[in-house]
Each structure stands twice: as C-alpha cells, then as structure tokens.
Amino acid sequence: MALAFDEFGRPFIILREQEKKTRLRGLDAQKANIASAKAVARILRTSLGPKGMDKMLQSPDGDVIITNDGATILEQMDVDNQIAKLMVELSRSQDYEIGDGTTGVVVMAGALLEQAEKLLERGIHPIRVAEGYEMASKVAFDHLEHISEKFEFSADNIEPLVQTCMTTLSSKIVNRCKRALAEIAVKAVLAVADLERKDVNLDLIKVEGKVGGKLEDTELVYGIIVDKDMSHPQMPKRIEDAKIAILTCPFEPPKPKTKHKVDIDTVEKFQTLREQEQKYFDEMVQKCKDAGATLVICQWGFDDEANHLLMHRNLPAVRWVGGVELELIAIATGGRIVPRFQELSPEKLGKAGLVREKSFGTTKDRMLYIEKCANSRAVTIFIRGGNKMMIEETKRSLHDALCVARNLIRNNSIVYGGGSAEISCSIAVETAADRHPGVEQYAIRSFADALDAVPLALAENSGLSPIDTLTAVKAQQVKESNPHCGIDCNDVGTTDMKEQNVFETLIGKQQQILLATQVVKMILKIDDVISPSEY
User: Which residues pair with 414 in a beta bridge?
Assistant: First the structure.
C-alpha cells in the first residue's frame, strides 16, 4: 500500500489494517482479472460442440457429477476468485434466460478479454476498448437479425422444432438417441404451451428419472407419475375413470392443540375411546365415499386402522405424496386440493381416465401413473438410464432442449449453428470497423477476432486443424456471401449448415453476445483491486 505523509513527514494510515491488505492497481489489476477470467473460459472451451469433452466434478461430500452443461460445471466448481465468480454468474444468467448456450457465452467472454489484453498492452485506454466493444456488439446483434430466418411450425408440423432441439442435444452425452429425446421434449412443450400467448410454463413439465432400463426406454407420459404405491398391498392396481380426492388432512383422530392426558382406569372407558376413534375413521372414509371418490391421494399418512377400513370399503389410497406433486396432480386432473374432510364435495374431485401402478425390474420399485387426465396441461418425462449420473445428465440435457423449444415458440427466428453465425458476424463487424475513425476501430477489429473463438474451439474439439478450417470456411462465406457455412464437426462432407440441419435460436445467440460484452465491459472498467491478504 502507498503510505501517505503529513507536512511534518510522519506517515499516517489511510486504510484500516492496510498492512494486511494487498492491492493491485492500474494495468496489473486488469491483467490479473483478465487472466483469471481466461482461466475459467479455458476450462469450458474443451466442452464446446458435438465433439466436446465432459467434465467430472466431485462435491465435498463425495457426490460425483459428470456433465457437459457449462452452467452446471461452473456452479459445481466452487470458484474462489471474484472475477471468476462473474463468469459463473454470466453462464447462470444465460441458463435462466435462454437455457442453452451456457458454454459458448463463457468462451466468448474469455476470447473478448484475451483480445482486450493485447489492446491494453499497446496502451489503449480500457474505456475506449469497452466503448469499441459496445459498438461492435450492436453491429453483431443487428447482423444476427439480418441473417436469421423465420421458422414456421404448427402443432401438426413439429419437424422444425425437433431439428433445433437435436442441435442442442448433439453436444451432450445423450446424442446417440437425440432424435427420440428431441421429439419427447418438443411434444412435452407443445402439450403445455399456450400458442396464442406464445408462452410456455415449464413448471408443468415434470422430469422424473429411475435407474434401470436403457436410454431408449425414456417416455413421455401425458399425465403425472408419482413415485409412490398404494397404501395397502391388496388394493386394486388399476383404476379406470378414477375420481380422485386430493387431501391435505391426515386420516387420524383429531388431536387437541393443547397438552392433554387421558386417564383410563376401567375397561369400559377404553372401549368407548376405541369406539369413538373407530367412528371418526368411519365418518372420514364415508365422507370420501359419499363424495363419489374412487381414489384418495393424501399428503399425510394414515393409521393402520384407517388403511384397513379403506381397504374394506374398496377405496384405494396413496399416502405421503409431496406438496408439489399434489399441485401437479390437481392441475392435471382438474381437482381441488381439500384441506378438511367436511369440505369434500363431488365437484372438487379430479378426474383421470386411468390410474395404474407399474413395477420395474425385479426390485420392489413401483410407481403410480395417472393418465388420460381431464386437463392434459401437465405432462411427465420419465427417464431411464444405466446409472444415476447418466439420468442426472439426461435431465440437464432435456432441460436445455425444453428451453430451446420454449424459445422457438416465443420467437421463431433461427440462425445456423456450427459457428456459421459467429463467422458471419465477424465478417460484418470487420467491415463495420472501417467506418469508425479513432481508437475504437482497433477494439471493433478485436471484437471481430474474438468472435472467431467459437468456431476455432469447435474445430479444435473436433480434431480438425483449427486455423486452416476456419480460414477455409471464412473464405467460402465471403466468396459465396453465404452466411450458412460453418465448421463441419461431424465430418458430413459439407460446410453448409442448412443441409446439415444445425440450427440455434436467434434470441439465444443475441443474448450470448450481449451478456458476454456486458461482463467484459465490467471487467475492463476495474482498475483497482483491494483484497484482504491471506495469511
């Protein structure tokens, strides 16, 4: 820390405990920040694209996560550096807003910072670099609008949506059955989508997983799956045209709120107590029967006596169903959640065409399927897989695919993938640089170079020679003025991404460029880092 002296030459303290603090200022601070952000970007660079590698992360309590999803990798990495935390937030905001492209946005920000470092070394002021980047990102943003195409789809013609979801899934571990998973994702989104308002509520899509089976067994259920079974083994396993009573009150005799104690000193008193309890249970079960319910789903447990009575009265029941699942069941069957037995009435019951219990494999695992519901606005995607990590990763991949389908319903413009959009933007930004006099021109050119980082990483991960491939594709784009030429990662033999059917959503790409530029501007503007030094 710099010492300050008064007019008599005595040093005095400005910052509290300044001898315990470290301080980086000026160019050193920027370089340190850029270095830490680049380090994060370098980790994610290898997991970009269809041939990208996966990362294996072990949490402190020994859980292992294997994933390709940029946001998940950074969330689980437990980063310590402040600037690296900004990168984590960057990919998280991309994940919340768009759901896909979380790796690309970090790679993009890393490349922008790498280019900025070169400019800072030449003595260009960081604010000028940031302003140049801002101009360039506007150019790129508008250019993406310009090269995008509208993608017409309807509830009958879902092929365009499926193709786009397949692009998302191709970079994941599940890419061997991406066609099936993409179709499941699209059908699920269309089942809950409100096409007039162009809105999709992803909360209505429940993703359940069970270890066992194989990935191809993953299915879409138009209804709800509950990981529970009937409360009594002799209850029917299949109920058609079920009328469902959804209760949040326990099947137990009422308990007073205060502390109490019952003195029983004769057999007669015990008899009356027991008869009283039995009467309570009888009334409860009778109320359910009177309302016309043929299945009871309860949030709490029952006494054995209640269970026995329900069994005798032929009223199948499910207990200990979680609150979220109850809400979904209520949405799907069009029932109301009833808090007290006194309020049960026929119109509050939910209706389902079929409720069945299905068992898996040789284990005692059973699940309850509630299908053919009155209101099919709630669906479940049921994933099978070889092990727990595979299922978790499939859930994350499907989340990406669901988000892409949702974005396309909101805004049906697409750009072509495989790095073609970035290369095209890079060319556009390069030409725009000539129109800007002054120092910003350098920054705009650097932005154009940074845009090439994504196609470069794609080529590198696919085992092609990055620079040759990139220059060849770029030359082809300029020569044919065709913005659809990208990196041929899968060795199909054509660089035209239109033929390869590799699409990405326009809003996803635009969001990537905007978010990356914002974070880079923020990092460039920091010129003084004061941190408590470690002992």
Answer: 149, 505
CATH number for the domain formed by residue range(s) 21-150+416-532: 1.10.560.10
Structure letter (DSSP) for residue 343: G
Told to judge if 69 belongs to the known catalytic residues of this protein, a careful annotator would answer: yes
| 102 is known as an active-site residue | yes
What are residue 370's DSSP bridge partners? 224, 355
Q: Among residues 350, 348, 290, which one has the least CA distance to residue 318?
A: 350
pLDDT computed for residue 376 by the predictor: 65
Q: Does the 223-375 domain belong in CATH 3.40.830.10? A: no
Instruction: Please identify which of the residues 102, 394, 469, 495 carries the catalytic annotation.
Output: 102
pLDDT at residue 2, rounded to an integer: 60
- In angstroms, the CA 237 to CA 33 distance is 62
Asked whether 528 and 29 are in contact (CB, 8 A), the reply is: yes
Task: Give the range with max mean pLDDT: 218-232, 281-295, 371-385, 502-516.
Answer: 502-516
Closest C-alpha among 221, 218, 225, 223 to residue 182: 218
Catalytic residue among 67, 69, 294, 333: 69
| pLDDT value, residue 517 | 92
Interatomic CA distance for residues 530 and 452, integer angstroms: 34
- The two tokens of residue 323 are 């609150």
Neighbouring CB atoms inside 10 A of 246's CB total 24
Average pLDDT rounded to a whole number, residues 323-335: 82
What integer best gives the mean pLDDT of the chain?
Answer: 84
3-state secondary structure of 321: coil
Catalytic residue among 100, 400, 488, 496: 400
- Looking at 103, 167, 333, 495, which residue is catalytic? 103
> Does residue 272 carry a catalytic annotation?
no
| 103 is a catalytic site residue | yes
CA 318, 322, 325, 329 torsion: positive or negative? positive
Q: Which of 373, 379, 370, 422 is nearest to 402 (CA)?
A: 379
* Domain spans, the chain: 21-150+416-532, 223-375
The per-residue pLDDT for 103 is 87
Highest mean pLDDT among 67-71, 104-108, 297-301, 362-366: 104-108
pLDDT at 1 over 60: no
What pLDDT score does 197 carry? 79
Read off the pLDDT of each residue in 271-291 and give the average, rounded to a whole number: 82
